[in-house]
Amino acid sequence: MKRYFYSGDDLDRIEALSRQLESAGFDRVQMHVLSKDDTGVDSHQGIHAVASIMKKDLLASGLRGAMVGAAFALVVVLVALQTHAFTTPAGTVIALFLAIGGFGFCTWEGGLFGIQTSNRRFARFQSLLDSGQHLFFIDVDRAQTAALRRVVESQPGIQSLGESRGLPRWWVKSQREVPRFLTQTLP
Q1: Which of 13, 23, 81, 119 is 20–30 Å from 46 (CA)?
Q2: How is domain 2-54+124-185 classified at the CATH fold level?
Q3: Per-residue pLDDT for 118 more than 90?
């Protein structure tokens, strides 16, 4: 899938675009709006806002912290093996506690760093967002590209900002199917 980015200065136009795309066969989970005006986005029912957690770099930084923590834990275990710390119960407890604690601490620190920074995938649009514009993006299958272009061209005030690699198809499908499964199967 590809992700297409568009900007607009009016949330009503973006909502109209979103509704036209839905009537053209696009699913709401494919579309997202990122804006500094969270209240305005929330007041438009036809807009699918970016989740708050995705506005920050929490997940990516947390994963980087977890990788550092895993490396730290591996070093602790290797040093414990070299020094024969696992031959005594006290040495085993200390080594494992240090490895698990270090892993958890590094993951936590990575998350704390990430919650303070904006999502790096949206960094190129920061000046646009700071100027009061709204970012609309959509993940599209190759077969849907022509329909997307047709609908976007019919909307005045919407400007194309480029494209990038989108979410995997299975992820988009799971965002649509899991809630449906939970509401229809588990009432």
Answers
A1: 119
A2: Alpha-Beta Plaits (3.30.70)
A3: no
- CB atoms < 10 A from the CB of 72, how many? 17
113 contacts 59 by C-beta, under 8 angstroms: no
Pairing state between β 31-34 and 134-140: antiparallel
Angle between helical axes of 58-82 and 89-116 (0-180°, round to 10): 160
Q: What does pTM read for this prediction? A: 0.74
Q: Whole-angstrom Cα distance, residue 15 to residue 33?
A: 9
Q: Which residue is it, tokens 């923590």?
A: 69
Angle, alpha carbons 112-118-124 (nearest 5°): 150
pLDDT, tens digit, 9 for 90 and up, residues 36-93:
888 888 888 888 888 888 889 998 999 999 999 999 999 999 999 999 999 999 999 9
Residues near 114 by Cβ (< 8 Å), separated by ≥ 6? Answer: 56, 57, 58, 59, 60, 61, 62
* Residue carrying structure tokens 């240090």: 98
Q: 57 near 117, Cβ under 8 Å?
A: yes
Q: What percent of the chain has pLDDT over 70?
A: 99
